């Protein structure tokens, strides 16, 4: 059997291939770390957006509830006076308030 010494050019080529594989593995690992960091940042941003939307919805709900209270008080104050046409304004106001409350709360179709 012929036992020749390895060809130095072949050894260098193998070394270059191994070095390229090592560099590629390091690049893939770095890309995976970058992707994980971006996903974490996106999750954090989603959380901040959802929390801001929740706070805004709570403020809007409180404002609508306060406005409804003022409107109902005004209706009730107006209903306390006698109606010239014999219509029970207090009853109309109560039914309207019940429909508004039902539609705001999602209870039913808003009809009485």
What does this structure look like?
With 112 residues, the chain is mainly alpha-helical. The protein has one domain. The protein is 79% helix and 0% strand. Helix 1 packs antiparallel against helix 2 (89-105). The protein is rod-shaped and about 120 Å long.
User: Which oligomeric state applies?
Assistant: single chain
Span between N and C termini? 103 Å
Unreliable runs: none
Note the overall shape.
Answer: rod-shaped
Q: Strand tally, please? A: 0
What is the overall pLDDT average?
86
Fraction of residues in helix: over 70%
Count of discrete structural domains: 1
Overall structural class, as computed from helix and strand content, comes to mainly alpha
Count of DSSP H/I helices: 2
Order of helices and strands: HH
Radius of gyration: 37 Å
Biggest sheet descriptor: none
Residue fraction in strands: under 5%
């Amino acid at each position: 059997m012929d036992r020749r010494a390895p060809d130095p050019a072949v050894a260098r080529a193998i070394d270059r291939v191994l070095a390229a594989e090592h560099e590629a593995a390091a690049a893939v690992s770095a890309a995976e770390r970058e992707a994980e960091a971006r996903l974490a940042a996106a999750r954090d941003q989603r959380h901040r957006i959802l929390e801001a939307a929740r706070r805004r919805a709570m403020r809007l709900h409180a404002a609508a509830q306060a406005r409804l209270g003022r409107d109902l008080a005004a209706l009730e104050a107006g209903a306390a006076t006698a109606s010239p046409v014999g219509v029970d304004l207090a009853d109309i106001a109560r039914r309207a308030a019940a429909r508004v409350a039902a539609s705001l709360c999602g209870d039913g179709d808003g009809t009485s």
